[in-house]
Amino acid sequence: MPSGLSRCAALTATAIVLLLLANMTPLMSLSVLGRNSSTTILNGAVQMWHQGQPIAAAIIAFCAIIAPGAFLTAMAAVLNAARRPTVPAWTSEILRWTRYLHAWSLIEVMLLGLLVSLVKIAQLARVGADIGIFAVGALTVLFPLIVANFDAAEIWSRIEWVAQADTAARRGSDARS
Amino acid sequence: MLSAANLGLVGCDACSLVCVSAPSGEQGFCPRCGEALHSRRKHALQRSWGLIIAALLCYIPANALPVLRTNMLGSTEDDTILGGVVLLYNSGSWPLALIVLVASVAIPLGKLIALSYLLLQVQRGRVTSTRDKTKLFRVVEVIGKWSMLDVFVDAYTVAMVQLQPLMSVEPGPGIVFFAAVVVLTVLAAEYFDPRLIWDAEGGVVP
C-alpha cells in the first residue's frame, strides 16, 4: 500500500471518530436570565423541520451529516479495497460517488455559519462553544487533507477492468432495443 | 487546435481513462469502469440554462421574503437576507456583516451572472480569452458552496434561541428559496461542460 494511501487511511479513521464526536456532543450552549439551551448538529435540521421548513431541513441534514458521513464511509471502503494488489471492480462505483459526496460535504461552510450565529446570539445572551464545535473545526482541516493525500489515479490504475464481455453485452442490448 | 475529439479519443468522466470513441451513432462505454462515454456532457447548455432560470426565479422570493422571524417579549421582527446584513452592521460587527454580504448576496448573484455569460459566449461560438473564461468557471465552481452560509446561520440561530415565551427565533418562508438558489446554481455549474468554452465550430482555435 503506497504511503499516501496509508496516510489517507489514518486521516479517514481520525475523521470518522471526530464526525461521531461532532454529532454526539453539543456544539454550543446559551444562558440568559437563568435559562439554558444547547444545540447539536442534528438539532439544526430537526428544528427547521418542526418549524415548517422540511426542504431546508433536508438540505441541512444532507450537507452537514449524510454527505460527510457517506463520504468517509466510502473512503474507508475504497481504501480497504485498495490494500489488495488488484482492486476489485465494485470499488469503481464507490470511487465515482466520493467526488460528489465530497462536493456536498459542507463542513467548513457549517463551521463559519456556526461562528456567525454564535456572534449574533452573543449580543442577546451569554454563549459558550462546546466540544462539538472544536470537532467540526478539526474536521474542516481533515477533509482537505484526506483529499490531498488521496491518489485516485493510482487506485484507478490498479482496478480490475469491467469485463470486456459485459461492455459487449450492453452494446448488444442497446442495439436490439 | 488539436483536441481529443478531433483525434477520435474520449476521456472517461469517472476514471479519466483515455478511450477510443465508439463509431458515430453508438454509445461507448469505458472498458475500465463501465461509465458511458461522452466527448462533451450531454445537453450541457440546455440543462445549465434550465437550472439557471429556475435559480433566477427562486432568487426573487429568496430576497423579498423574510428568512428569520424573531419573537422577543411579545414583539415580532421579520428579517430578510439583506436586512440581516444591515442588522449585523448596525450592531457593530462589520466584519461579520461583510462575510454574510459576500456569501449571501455577492456570490449567488455573481454566479448567476458568470454562468449566464459563459453560456451565452459558448452559444455564440466565441472563443476569445478562453483561459480567463476557464478560470472564471473554476472560481464559480469553488465558491458556489459558500452561499449556503446563511442557511446554516439561520438554522443554528433557530436551534439555539428557543426560550419561549421570553425569546424565540423561527425560520421565515424565504429560507427555502434561498437554499434552492444555492443548490440549483451548484447543479448548473456541475452540468455545464467547461470544455465547451474551447470549442469553436470545428474545434479550431487560432
CATH hierarchy, class of the largest domain in chain B: Mainly Alpha
Which two protein chains have the largest interface (Cβ within 8 Å of the partner's Cβ), and how many residues from each? Answer: A-B, 55 and 49 residues
The pLDDT mean of chain A sits at 88
Predict the CATH topology of the largest domain in chain B.
Butyryl-CoA Dehydrogenase, subunit A, domain 3
**In angstroms, what separates the terminal alpha carbons of chain B?**
7 Å
The main sheet of chain B comes to: 4 strands, antiparallel
Number of helices of chain A: 8
The largest beta-sheet of chain B arranges its strands as: 4-3-6-5
CATH architecture of chain A: Up-down Bundle
Q: Give the low-confidence spans of chain B.
A: 202-206
Structural class of chain B: alpha+beta
The fraction of residues in strands of chain B falls at 5-15%
Features:
heterodimer, A: 177 residues, mainly alpha, Butyryl-CoA Dehydrogenase, subunit A, domain 3, three-stranded antiparallel β-sheet, 73% helix, B: 206 residues, alpha+beta, four-stranded antiparallel β-sheet, two-stranded antiparallel ribbon, 51% helix, elongated, disordered C terminus
Short description:
The complex is a heterodimer of chains A (177) and B (206). With 177 residues, chain A is mainly alpha-helical.
Explain the layout of strands and helices.
The complex is a heterodimer of chains A (177) and B (206).
Chain A: H1 3-24, E1 28-32, E2 35-39, H2 41-50, H3 54-81, H4 90-103, H5 107-122, E3 126-129, H6 131-149, H7 152-158, H8 164-176
Antiparallel strand pairs in A: 1-2, 1-3
Chain B: E1 9-11, E2 18-20, H1 44-64, E3 68-72, E4 75-79, H2 81-90, H3 94-123, H4 130-143, H5 149-160, E5 162-163, E6 167-171, H6 174-191
Antiparallel strand pairs in B: 1-2, 3-4, 3-6, 5-6
